[in-house]
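Hey, weird one. I pasted the Type V secretory pathway, adhesin AidA sequence into the form twice and got a warning about non-standard characters only the second time. First submission, copied straight from the form history:
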Amino acid sequence: MRAKKQGTYAAYLKPPGKRGNRLHSQQQKQFPRHTMHQLRRGHGALVFTLLAVNSTLCHAATFELDNGISGRWDTSLSTGMSISTSDPDRNLLPTVYDGRAAGINGNDGRMNFKAGDTISRVVKGTTELALSRDNLGLQISGKFWHDDLLENGDARFKDFDDSGFDSLAKFSGAELMDAYVWGEFQLNDRPLDLRLGQQVLSWGESTFIQGGLNVINPIDANALTTPGVEIKEALIPVNLFNLSLGISENLSTSAFYQLEWRATVQPGCGTFFAQSDASQPGCGPLYAVSGRTEAQQENMQLVNPLLPAGANMVIPRISDDTPADAGQWGVRLDYFAEELNSTELAFYVMNYHSRLPYTNAITADYSKRPGSGFFLPGVTNNPLYGGSNAKPLAQAPLYQMAFPEDIRLYGISFNTSGPWGISMSGELSHRPNQPIAINGQDFLYASGFLDTESPIVDELFGLDIQAPGSGPILAKAAGLYGTQVQGYRRKPVSQLQLTAMQTFSDIWGADNLLLIAEVGTVHVADLEPVETLAYGRDAVYGSGVEGAAIACKNPALKQDYCQREGYTTPWSWGYAARANLTYNDLLPGTVVTPSLAWRYDVEGYAPSPAPQFVEGRQAVTLAVNFDYLERYNAAVSYTDFFGGDFNPQTDRDFISFTLGAKF
């Protein structure tokens, strides 16, 4: 339950210790909870940045009607802007644009902005209505937004265009968020809570690190990039039925069945925080090489007039492979162990479909060469410039974004009070069949050249190509031309994370200091040797498996990328921390809250997509929030992304300014 009229970060975090999992109090019955705890998963560094920047007031209007209905109406409006403080990093730009990277499918957003450019200029608002009468209630909320910079501004490289984007990724729009009914009943003298409709349901104990137990609701990662974003704007409610039953004083159970599937919303291609030009809805296609512009690859006659009309180096996108709405459910059991220092224990079982996209491909079809049009360089030629021995294909390899179904999840969590009043919590999750992404460059290479001798071709397709020229014969005999191949494999993946929180009073002239720290580790079992099959690593760094890493022969590329590093490792770990100071009387009627947040991925590389840890990756955010009369607020923040040899976010630094009001 979100506390009323508290202006600190602590207002959104119930202390882990001694909170129990008792069913709603009377006050919670009137106003169902929407707290920061509900966001405890996210989209990499963007989630950490959001948690690092935002601490806003809750200012709601409450009312009573003559018919016994109680209500609350909460509305917030804000305007803000963000400015880039980094120029594009040459090491992350393709060679054709004077860069040193091996990939060309993630540069649009990078090249659309330079240091000093405004990256977002937005006006937005949220409104939330809660009604209750006796043991029944209704919750409705919505939001609107208009980004004038993206809607009407000029881009440096490619025009801003949100055609085909997810509705939540469009530059302007409005969206219904919560829309559910709830009721509290008695079943054999035991409390029974029911909720049905579009809602957010948060399980687990994570605060900063994604990928754990809290996977029920997808994240609007695009909203996380908006200046002045509130926590509830980043959560995507989904239609589900939720039941909670008190079994005894210290034991309760909960279950849900999800009625629809929704994907995580990514920043659209061409916007500042977009990491891809091809994976989001409305984006694509893929381009085959780094050494030619997109226009040249779409029409290879611009490079060599002797090539046939329509020759190109484009990998088209086909419709996404989306999962069914059915088949997503979860059960949890909560036990409040008073004999164990009043520790709350919870046990979880879930089945869900991925909210994150993976890349599938339809392999090239060499059997249809006559009248081809698609033109890819042969393995004996320079891959960046093509050549006379290049292979024309009638059917190019195709790609699609896929969302694997039926991921099983088992977990346990705890929260308690530790020594010196430290609130402590943690969770352990295990997925025996977690999809993890194969390196995209290697995967698409194999899909286009499945009849060539290469470790990844052998691993993915089972072809043992030894005799020169035998590849096409073996591939055709195996029926591999024009077939679908998955860009991921399923592996057992476990994740452990621990969180500690402590509050100090009257320190450094502040009324209080809030410290939160979280450490986590991920383990992936049964990984193949990277020489055989590599997982993860952003496509900007090119291929790494022998036979696919032909681009590394080009001296224009950054040779540091031409190594067996940066791929998914069996172990990875890191931590995140935040410090909040609260000054209640520094300015008249104003609560001033400076904060410092730091994230450090210490060692190893977690599975893609959206890896929890990328070795050496760091992010630091400095912010100051001003809350005046519990109604008006202003904030300024600066975020610096740095560190890591394979971190594609190092040129995404920015500063944000926000003004807002709540009614």
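That's the output from the first submission. The warning seems to come from a hidden character in my clipboard, not from the data itself. The chain has two domains: 9-281+320-357+403-438+487-527+568-662, 283-319+358-402+439-486+549-555.
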